[in-house]
Design goal:
The complex is a heterodimer of chains A (99) and B (520). With 99 residues, chain A is α+β, with helices and mostly antiparallel strands. Chain A has 2 helices and 4 strands. The two termini of chain A are 16 Å apart. Chain B has 520 residues and is an alpha/beta fold. Chain B has 2 domains: 49-243, Glutaconate Coenzyme A-transferase; 254-486, Glutaconate Coenzyme A-transferase, CATH 3.40.1080. Chain B is built from 16 helices and 25 strands. In chain B, the strands form 5 sheets. Chain B has a 10-stranded mixed β-sheet with strand order 1-10-9-6-2-3-4-5-24-25. Chain B has an 8-stranded mixed β-sheet with strand order 14-13-12-11-15-18-22-23. A 3-stranded mixed β-sheet of chain B has the order 17-16-21. In chain B, α9 packs across α10 (285-301). The two termini of chain B are 36 Å apart. In chain B, 56% of the residues are buried. Classes of the chains: A alpha+beta (99), B alpha/beta (520).
């Protein structure tokens, strides 16, 4: 998928994360601020890259402010932001790209 | 050198401090030593007043100079003005290289961070530190080594002469011009002065600072004039709203209430729950809820408590009002109800030495049946961490945790399995503050683990209808939800040590390092 316009998903509440995606410069540009970065920074990065790979997003600037979200939440927020960026709100591929 | 809790204490630290590694709780049992005494300047004349006009004058009269050790207590908690007031003056006088030996330091003391950065303060010894001082130490800004000691450990260090306090500053809610200090009355009523008593006994110079001067004699004195050199009257020694708060509303958090219920059920099913038992608990929501639900069952079953200890709060003082306990032994008052309760004839003030010092001839903690504690982390060896956050930053205090845990027959630690994403039950705690040999039971919202060292408790609980699990099972549940955490990336420099009760080294704290991803 190609990022069309900037989009945000998620909140800054505890145990959530706020994901912003924007069109990239030919690669995945990842930045993370997290309350649990020391313990889970690598795991969050891995989950985000996996999620983007599943959605075939290769060109994106993705910025995450994490407040201790679990992996399932992070995945959902990344997917939410990407679908919003392409304006897709119907026919979301539940159980397909979203898993 | 590897110590008894499996932590590697570098040789350089053993050389620098002259300390041994931790060998287990009873390594020093029966040890004989001579107590250290203060250099005392006699007052024989009868001119009659010890009042000086300012902190500056007191410092000058005490002959403050570079390299001295200053003592402080933390009865005013987050409302304390004393430390900042004194250190501002010390800084203004251009004094350097001060060691602060405080019973604890908190967020109220953020303003002294610049004095750490400019070398006014180069060493800190405290039960722990919170707020900006913790960050400063973790970031390597303190020139010397921070020493974190339990409340009992501080008394031991002072009484054994390991540390000599040159000048102790005792903030006191009321005082007369001759130095009789009381924790009661005035505008900054904190109830007791337990932490400061050892400073009164052992510091070379003792300065009482009050905002409520009363006529002589301010009796019965909690700290006697016989120990006080100078008295200073200032406008305010603390913010009374932050010294003793109104009683905390009992928690309505279902998770905490559930853990409190598990805790109460565990207690009443244990062999120690019988007429005449003894009990201590902290100020966490779950601990307070346990006390409330325990009081109910004590009434139903006609079981009386012999004594309660603390760190007191309203639910403990209610036991006294409702005649469910014979005596309360008080080292600190957390709320106004506890301060008020000090007037009760069966509410006794005790010194922190009596409470927890491992190097006296027996402390109150040794007589405890139950203690209920919290922890930032507990590992599968039952070691607890209450000082260093899971992110590696110094953020808490030992307090009486290691003292009561070592003394009590049944030490219960309550911790929610996850704090946000951070597992409270883990493979290895970031820093050990209380050794697993002291910890008998861990209660979480996902189940209860009994330390395998306590086969007697496991046996006693075999018919109890509680969700028992092994500590490893609890950790595995936590990791299955949150993922296994990476180890915090520390720098090389050791910025602090966690001292065990007996002065041996339990663990070291390293400088924090900015996070780097494993792959970019």
């Amino acid at each position: 998928m190609e990022i069309i316009k900037p989009a945000v998903a998620g909140t800054l509440e505890s145990s959530d994360c706020q994901v912003t995606v924007e069109a990239g410069e030919g690669k995945i540009d990842f930045s993370l601020e997290s309350s649990v970065i020391n313990q889970y920074g690598n795991q969050i990065r891995r989950v985000v890259f996996e999620t983007l790979e599943n959605m075939e997003v290769k060109n994106v600037r993705i910025t995450i402010i994490d407040k201790g979200a679990l992996d399932c939440t992070i995945r959902a927020r990344v997917e939410g932001a990407v679908f919003r960026s392409v304006g897709q709100i119907d026919n979301l591929p539940w159980g397909g790209a979203i898993r | 050198m590897i110590n008894a809790v499996g932590r590697d204490i570098p040789e350089e630290i053993l050389e620098l401090t002259g300390k041994e590694v931790f060998h287990g709780n009873h390594y020093y049992d029966g040890y004989v030593y001579k107590k250290d005494g203060p250099n005392t300047k006699c007052v024989i004349n009868s001119i009659g007043s010890k009042l000086v006009t300012s902190i500056k004058e007191a410092l000058e009269k005490c002959e403050i100079r570079d390299g001295m050790t200053l003592g402080f207590h933390h009865h005013f908690r987050e409302g304390d003005y004393i430390v900042n007031m004194v250190m501002e003056e010390v800084h203004r006088m251009g004094i350097k290289d001060i060691t602060i030996c405080a019973s604890s330091l908190g967020k109220a003391h953020d303003p002294i961070v610049p004095y750490i950065e400019d070398g006014t303060i180069t060493n800190i010894q405290s039960s722990g530190v919170r707020g900006k001082i913790g960050e400063a130490i973790s970031n390597g800004k303190l020139k010397g080594l921070a020493i974190m000691r339990s409340h009992g450990g501080r008394v031991r260090a002072i009484e054994s002469g390991e540390i000599r306090i040159d000048i102790a500053f005792i903030g006191t809610p009321t005082c007369d011009e001759y130095g009789n200090c009381r924790g009661i009355g005035g505008k900054s009523n904190c109830g007791v002065l337990s932490y400061a008593m050892v400073d009164g006994d052992h510091a070379d110079k003792v300065v009482a600072i009050t905002d409520c001067l009363v006529p002589f004699p301010n009796f019965p004195a909690h700290i006697s004039m016989t120990k006080v050199d100078y008295v200073v009257k200032v406008d305010e020694i603390g913010n009374s709203e932050k010294i003793a708060t109104g009683a905390a509303k009992p928690t309505t958090d279902m998770r905490k209430l559930m853990m409190a219920e598990y805790c109460t059920q565990f207690i009443i099913n244990s062999p120690y729950f019988k007429d005449g038992f003894s009990y201590q608990t902290g100020v966490g929501g779950a601990s307070i809820a346990s006390t409330i639900s325990l009081a109910k069952i004590m009434k139903e079953r006609n079981v009386r408590m012999r004594f309660g200890v603390g760190g007191l709060t309203k639910p403990m003082c209610d036991l006294l009002i409702n005649n469910q306990v014979d005596a309360l032994l008080d080292t600190q008052d957390f709320d106004l109800s506890a301060v008020e309760s000090v007037k009760n004839l069966r509410h006794f003030r005790i010194s922190v030495g009596e409470y927890a010092d491992p190097f006296n001839k027996g402390a109150v903690v040794n007589k405890l049946d139950f203690v209920i504690l919290a922890a930032l982390e507990v590992d599968v060896h039952f070691n607890c961490n209450v000082v260093v956050g899971s992110n590696g930053m110094i953020t808490g205090a030992q307090g009486g945790h290691p003292d009561t845990a070592a003394g009590a027959k049944c030490t219960i630690v309550i911790a929610p399995l996850l704090q946000g994403r951070i597992p409270a039950i883990c493979t290895d705690v970031t820093t050990v503050t209380t050794p697993g040999e002291s910890v008998d039971v861990v209660i979480t919202d996902y189940g209860i683990a009994i330390n395998p060292r306590r086969q007697d408790l496991i046996e006693a609980m075999k018919d109890a209808e509680l969700p028992f699990k092994t500590i490893e099972e609890l950790r595995n549940i936590a990791y299955s939800i949150a993922g296994e955490p990476d180890k915090v990336q520390f720098g090389k420099r050791i910025v602090g040590i966690i001292e065990s009760r007996d002065g041996t080294i339990m663990d070291v704290v390293r400088q924090i390092k900015p996070f780097k991803f494993a792959e970019e």
